[in-house]
Amino acid sequence: MTDVHYNEQSFLEQLMICTEYVDKAERYELLGPLYRLIIPIYERKKDYQALLACYQHLTKAYAKVIEVTNSGKRLLGRFYRVAFFGKAHFGEDEEGVEFIYKEPKLTSLSEISEKLQMYYEQKFGAGSVKMIMDSAPVNRDELDGKLAYIQVTWVRAAPEGRAAASASGEGAFERAHNVRRFVFETPFTRDGAPRGPVHHQRLRLTHLTAEYWFPYVKRRIPVIETQVEEKSPIEVAVAEMESQVTELSEIVNAKATDLKKLQLRLQGSVCVQVNAGPLAYANAFLDPTLAQMYPDELVDKLKSTFKEFLTVCHSALQLNAKLISSDQVSYHEALEANYYKLSDALAGVLGQPLQDILVNGSLTTTVTGVELDSSNA
């Protein structure tokens, strides 16, 4: 920089300001790399007071990382896909263009929709803006040329070049930092209805790539690439069961167990409704009379996922038994009873009894002095 006096001290001052902003943004993981640039300068200057402050800040930052990781209460924002339609109102830089918006904390779909509608009605006039609240593809021929249309869809970040977050050990920070790929799901059936029986239920995955990475200096970034993937009903079942296994495994393997979250997830997992949940998938795709209609590799994958599901539910029940108080014994017994019913119903289509599926061969837990054993089921 030729016209500004810029030296090492100026650089250091800017880095220190950066540490303050990173802390305020709750992106504590970035402080380590920042201080690796700062600390060598202070060491060379033998500024021990400054070094003490650096290491104290780092100590607090890493403590916060542990705290928010265990609590899950850090809110790094939400992402939304926003598309604009209506040549009469939007210019070339917006009409027909999709953007990814980054909104703070727990901004809901209704909040961002209301905010956008108010902004553009002030710009174009009251009653001139119509919101499209579903994620289905928009047929422009069906739109009123006099109106401005805005479609808003919640999207989740999908960090590129990485495995699934649960498999690679990523957390909330990695899923919200340095991301430019996003995905949203649209359920549909062949007859045009968004939802139907599990053997008709399909899923459209829309993958979006933004021009730049978030966080960015702007709150919205245009989408430069869109890819659409469709899942068949059995693929939807596999993905849903894998998701349930992953979510329950994360809760079971957490260093600090959230009992309420464990029980809510466990209660939903061992549901024994015939027309919904795991049992509906099993009856639709694994029944010997129906399984031959689907690819063998997908049937085998679904069977394998169900075995993992029963195993992780077993682990969750054991963990729940250790953590509950005496006034929840009957609640736990109800969960166990549902688990037995579900495992009995699944044993036929899986071709294996529960004892063979479970890694340790039996389900024996002790709840406040009461022993529960699968052999009694």
From TrEMBL:
Domain DOCKER as annotated: residue spans: 1-355
GO MF annotation: an example: guanyl-nucleotide exchange factor activity
Pfam family, one: DHR-2_Lobe_C
Homology family: Belongs to the DOCK family.
Keywords recorded for this protein, A-Z: Guanine-nucleotide releasing factor
Name of the protein in its database record: Dedicator of cytokinesis protein 9
GO biological process terms, semicolon-separated: small GTPase-mediated signal transduction
Species for this entry: Papilio machaon
